[in-house]
Write a structure and sequence with these properties.
Blueprint (H helix, E strand, L loop, with lengths): L11 E2 L8 E11 L5 E11 L8 E4 L4 E7 L2 E2 L2 E4 L2 E4 L9 E9 L9 E5 L2 E5 L18 E11 L5 E4 L2 E8 L3 E7 L4 E2 L5 E4 L1 E9 L5 E9 L7 H18 L7 E7 L6 E2 L4 E5 L12 H16 L8 E2 L5 H18 L4 H23 L11 E2 L8 H18 L1 H15 L3 E2 L1 H10 L5 H4 L1 H4 L1 H4 L5 E9 L4 E9 L14 E8 L14 E4 L3 E7 L6 E4 L8 E4 L3 H10 L3 H21 L10 H12 L5 H8 L4 H6 L6 H18 L1 H11 L9 H24 L3 H12 L3 H14 L4 H11 L4 H12 L8 H9 L9 H12 L3 H4 L5 H14 L3 H8 L12 H13 L6 H11 L3
Helix pairs in contact: 1-2, 2-3, 3-4, 3-5, 4-5, 5-6, 6-7, 11-12, 12-14, 14-18, 16-18, 17-18, 18-19, 18-20, 19-20, 22-24, 26-27, 26-28, 27-29, 28-29
């Protein structure tokens, strides 16, 4: 048996890529499923790769018991080398030969949840990125694509449902109460897309007819008792199928498409061909148990995994360095899908703002930290560590810039050419960019493709500096843009990026100035560029980087007056929101940098501007909620050279409390105006109203905490008891917990009693308490108590994330303690989880990526905690890579 903990750490480099020495054409897998000892018979047809010099066949394998190896039906010699099965003396020439490998494994002992494992009596697989080698010996790399036939055999009473990729060809009984199912996938695929599921499941089914007139069966499989929570997932799947065919002409290419939900899953979901396996968090929802955010996330993730059917499955990655070829592109596609489903333009804007907030609070810090890497990384120790916001979210922004540069129709032409060229192939990010450019030969992308591709090869977040100068006599406004990108690990010098800057100009009264189309999008491809606008009657207010047209930091010395004009009048919703964020951030940073106790950081002009947003008679409620949400502690900290986390926390809390008090009457108005929405519907308009009502209730309870008024906490508690949906109920509970009111001590156990049998709801209950504001150091003791709760299960990734990640990753004011207790807790949990699930442990290890920015005593204490983890001899490659890189530049 082999293990990730054995053997030397190996760095894999993109420049060392070489094609495989053998191709695998067909795979026939037969599983005799048993939790303690599953038997796997793997019959393959292989042939030598004529383009590669003759060499032994090396097959990957982990934690397998090898029983038999046959070549063309006869025994053969083999050896084991560093966990690989090595076969020499194979048939010469390029004619196909058969290889039969018989192995066993123990799914019930597989706590890593990679490969074949058992969760609550059901078999599941997770093979991306390198889990298939835990099922059978194989060329476990994405550029080896084969045709799969899979036969599953199991006890019928325990496992009545047997699923795998593709189409069901045959099923029937076997002796001794067993049965079988044979699945054939008509499309070649790499091993990471293999999947099987076997268990006692029920399915919601829907037959649909595609535009071509073909009928397809859609199925959502869940455990018994969860059927009432599958309607939204099914409707999201139907919408995804229809959207992809309408927007890009990409039809469903299988007789059936299946989704299966499991509560034990390291990721959100997995796009295995025709058999998507999902974390229950992104499938199960009804109004009583799921919030508006849950409904939106399910729609997005169901779309994402379905869209992989073409962008990832039909065309896949040549190697794992090309991961963003499928993930960045598919995140872009799921973002476009969610925006296209929004009936109102304001709802589209809200979705865009939400996506950018994720980028800024998660990806920008990654770009500035020790784990910084290009969208297409150059090397890795453990590929699981590069399923990152850079590969996904920044990768999506790179694709979005392509669409911006060639237009929506031009991008669709490029997608069409991409599939014409590469359907059924394993390709690279360069192949995708080339297809988009070749389909649009007159575009800026095609003219400067090599410059644009630096987004794939250079890490870091570019900073774009804008300087405007108005010449009243000449009636001319001159805008100069320049760019710079700071060094990142392994990349000291950066060449200029190609940066599309969408812009507009407003007059002092906020009216849009007419501009020719050629000046509404400036393409910055050099260190600097200058744009001249003529016939401008007065000094304009520039609206720069509209729609967040590039993933950059914009540096512009705009005045408060200019920002207030944009906040009140800009026709671009993103920049209207951005103006409010810049105003708030400016005040937060001033208060953080000031000496002495934290006073009231907000001035009357800002408060009046927020009141105007809140009371605005045409702005969407969801947009108001986003605009009135202050920049996060993480985002504020990223603007500082040295971070005192407690100071940042105190300032942001002071800003919240000041807004709560100053706008008390306005919050009361907003709550009363938006709290009633009739029968529950998770549409953007209704969800926005609930979000604003929830925010208002929280602010009113915060103000009550200062004033001692019991009216609004009492109303919140009554709302908690009477709510007709989970969103309103949880918003009311959150208002009590966040404000620290005594009624929270009554509401929390009542909530638990109501939903003790709903695992996903309990995750919210745990997370709310672990993420609550820290008042007097009370959160860490509460977290320890939560971990001792009978419903806490460390080995369940969702539950571990709900408590430990909510505290360490999402609650900086509580985590960064002067006594270092938070860091000690973090190191203990990383080491504890690493013993059974390295992938989850490595994600937790990322919580201290930005330790070098911390002020003392936090900095030294954080370094000591990281060093403690790094010093452990028994450490997975997943965690070791993270902590080693964190300490590498010390």
């Amino acid at each position: 048996m082999s293990s990730l903990r054995e053997g030397p750490t190996t760095v894999v480099r993109r420049e060392d890529y070489a094609p495989p020495a053998y191709w695998i054409d067909t795979v026939e897998l037969t599983f005799d499923l048993d939790p303690a000892k599953t038997r796997v018979l793997n019959r393959m047809t292989l042939r030598r790769n004529a383009a590669v010099a003759a060499q032994p066949l090396r097959l990957d394998g982990e934690e397998l018991n090898l029983a038999r190896v046959l070549v063309n039906g006869a025994g053969c010699s083999f050896k084991m080398d560093a966990g690989q099965l090595v076969l020499d003396n194979l048939p010469e020439g390029n004619e196909p030969f058969t290889l039969e490998i018989f192995t066993t494994c123990a799914p019930e002992k597989n706590s890593q949840l990679m490969g074949l494992y058992v969760s609550q009596g059901t078999f599941f697989t997770q093979c991306e990125a390198e889990g298939f080698r835990r099922i059978t010996y194989f060329l476990d790399r994405p550029d080896v694509m084969a045709s799969y036939t899979v036969t599953l055999r199991a006890d019928k009473a325990r496992y009545p449902v047997l699923l795998s990729n593709g189409n069901l060809e045959e099923e029937g009984p076997l002796p001794d109460g067993r049965h079988f199912a044979k699945w054939v996938d008509p499309h070649r695929k790499p091993s990471y897309l293999f999947a099987l599921v076997a268990g006692n499941l029920v399915a919601r089914e829907q037959r649909i007819v595609s535009r071509s007139g073909k009928e397809h069966l859609l199925q959502v499989f869940v455990r018994r008792g969860d059927m009432d929570k599958t309607e939204h997932a099914m409707q999201s799947l139907i919408a995804s199928v229809a959207w992809d065919e309408a927007r890009f002409g990409l039809p469903l290419d299988l007789e059936r498409f299946m989704i299966v939900a499991t509560s034990d899953f390291n990721m959100g979901a997995m796009e295995n061909k025709g058999l998507n396996i999902f974390n229950t968090k992104y499938v199960l929802a009804n109004s009583a148990t799921a919030t508006d955010t849950d409904f939106a996330n399910i729609e997005s993730v169901v779309g994402h995994e379905y869209f992989h059917n073409w962008t990832g499955n039909r065309v896949t990655c040549r190697d794992w360095f090309q991961l963003s070829l499928k993930e960045g592109l598919t995140v872009f596609r799921d973002q476009e899908f969610s925006m296209d489903l929004c009936a109102e333009p304001s709802a589209r804007a809200v979705k865009r703002i939400e996506d950018v907030r994720v980028l800024r609070t998660a990806q920008f810090p990654e770009d500035a930290g020790p784990m910084a890497h290009p969208v297409r990384p150059d090397s890795y120790v453990e590929i699981n560590n590069f399923y990152t916001v850079t590969v996904y979210e920044k990768g999506a922004e790179v694709v979005r810039m392509m669409q911006t540069l060639v237009g929506r129709e031009g991008f669709a032409r490029g997608m069409k050419l991409y599939f014409e060229r590469h359907d059924g192939q394993a390709v690279t990010c360069d192949d995708f960019a080339q297809a988009i450019a070749d389909a649009n030969p007159d575009s800026a992308l095609a003219r400067q493709l090599e410059v644009f591709k630096r987004w794939y090869s250079q890490a870091g977040t570019p900073r774009v500096r804008a300087e405007g100068r108005y010449d009243a006599e000449a009636r001319r406004y001159t805008l100069t843009l320049s760019q710079h990108c700071a060094p990142t690990p392994g990349q000291a010098v950066k060449q200029p990026f190609l940066i599309p800057v969408a812009l507009g100009l407003l007059d002092a009264q906020g009216r849009e100035l007419p501009l020719p189309e050629s000046q509404r999008l400036v393409v910055l491809a050099d260190a600097s560029a200058t744009v001249v606008f003529d016939d401008i009657d007065s000094e304009p207010v520039p609206s720069l980087l509209r729609g967040f047209s590039a993933p950059v930091v914009l540096e512009y010395a705009d005045s408060d007056a200019q920002l207030l004009t944009l906040l009140a009048h800009d026709s671009d919703p993103f920049n209207r929101w951005e103006a409010g964020q810049r105003l708030a951030l400016r005040r937060a940073l001033a208060a953080v940098r000031a000496d002495g106790p934290v006073a009231q950081p907000l001035d009357a002009a800002f408060i009046d501007a927020m009141r105007a947003v809140l009371r605005h008679d045409t702005l969407d409620a969801a947009f108001k909620e986003l605009t009135l949400t202050l920049p996060s502690e993480t985002y504020i900290s990223e603007q500082l050279e040295v971070v005192d986390p407690q100071r940042v926390h105190a300032v942001r809390e002071a800003m919240r409390e000041q807004l709560a008090q100053a706008l008390h009457a306005d919050w009361a108005w907003a709550y009363e105006q938006h709290r009633d929405n009739g029968a529950y519907r998770p549409d953007p308009l209704s969800a926005g109203r609930r979000a604003l009502a929830g925010m208002a209730l929280t602010m009113l309870c915060l103000d009550a905490r200062q004033s001692g008024d019991a009216v609004w906490p009492g109303k919140a508690y009554q709302r908690f008891k009477d709510a007709g949906n989970m969103t309103d109920r949880f918003n009311a509970l959150s208002a009590l917990v966040v404000s620290g009111h005594a009624l929270a001590r009554e509401a929390l156990p009542r909530f638990h009693a109501m939903f003790r049998d709903e695992a996903l709801v309990l995750d919210k209950w745990f997370a709310l308490q672990a993420g609550a504001p820290d008042r007097g150091g009370n959160i860490l003791p509460a977290v320890r108590q939560l971990m001792a709760h009978p419903d806490f299960q460390l080995r369940n990734p969702n539950r571990a994330r709900s408590v430990i990640f909510s505290y360490c990753n999402a609650n900086p004011g509580a985590f960064h303690r002067a006594d270092a207790a938070g860091y000690v807790f973090w190191s203990d949990r990383v080491l504890e989880i690493d013993r059974f699930n390295p992938q989850v442990a490595a994600r937790l290890a990322r919580a201290l990526d930005r330790w070098k920015k911390l002020a003392e005593p936090y900095r030294s204490a954080a370094r000591e905690a990281i060093a403690r983890v790094a010093a452990q001899a028994e450490l997975s490659n997943d965690v070791r890579e993270v902590v080693t890189r964190a300490l590498s530049e010390d």
